[in-house]
Amino acid sequence: MPQQSASNTIGIIGLGAMGAGMATAMRDAGLNVIGCDVSAQAREALEAQGGRCVASPKALAAECRVVVLVVVNAEQVEAVLFGDDGLAGSMAPNSLIMQCATVAPSYARSLGGRLADRGLSMLDAPISGGATKARQGELSVMASGSEAAFQLGAVALDAMAAKVHRLGDEPGAGSSVKLVNQHLAGVHIAAAAEAMALGIRMGLDPHALYDVITHSAGNSWMFENRVPHILSGDYTPLSAVDIFVKDLNLVHQTGRELTLSMPVAASALQQFTAASSAGLGREDDAAVIKVYQRLAGLTLPAANDTDHSEVTS
């Protein structure tokens, strides 16, 4: 285990499924990890594993030169960095903010400039791989930032990622690539749900249909990963409907900024929005199929005890 120092003391803000897994992977790699979350339960879970937590983002500043943000959206990023007890006003110059939330590329670029004005570096570093990969330290990181930022973040990146995609020397490129990923992921999930709804409405055995499609040209990673949730009737929110309401809205925000029409993404967004408005926003994103259940009276597979595989975004 390496000697603990400022260079291998990593702060993590956001101890949900992804952040908690990343914290554990980093601790397994010998890093000194200090967690922070608004949820007392999340803090207690990390502490029960031998980790340490602090009460506010500001409290991390005295101990960490590198802080990783694993929060949900830009609003939470703003609160963590610039709100009461925020991080940005307290960190030492030349410290690093590694920003992992899915946000608009324009916001990532703006944020990088604002942090630079305070003498702080930023890695625009969205992540993909799901909670299991986070726990294993095998995430895919879509990162952009200065060489100095990559050097500051190297220890944390080595511990959390199987692959770090270096996409440019300024914030914005990482978030741009993540947005393309989320566009495809959301469209593929919505298409998988509609395809299964079609098959069920035609009277096909959904399990047999899944077996055929996963061995045919119509398969996709999302079809293969999400449809088992439908087959088992288990909509435990490993990745929620509302995540894609948010992310596909970001796709449209960016499209408007670029004057780029994206009708396929628009259709997928409407399906996720319909699912959310029907009260399904906190269920697994595969629950978008329930829109068809309600509109067409489909009988979906009932819940059972079958575990479904880990999801990713």
UniProtKB/TrEMBL annotation:
Key word Oxidoreductase present: yes
Residues of the 6-phosphogluconate dehydrogenase NADP-binding domain: 9-166
Catalytic class of the enzyme: oxidoreductase
Active site: 178
Catalytic reaction annotation: L-threonate + NAD(+) = 2-dehydro-L-erythronate + NADH + H(+)
PANTHER family: 3-HYDROXYISOBUTYRATE DEHYDROGENASE-LIKE 1, MITOCHONDRIAL-RELATED, L-THREONATE DEHYDROGENASE
Family statement drawn from the similarity comment of this UniProt entry: Belongs to the HIBADH-related family. L-threonate dehydrogenase subfamily.
Protein name: L-threonate dehydrogenase
Source taxonomy: Bacteria, Pseudomonadati, Pseudomonadota, Gammaproteobacteria, Oceanospirillales
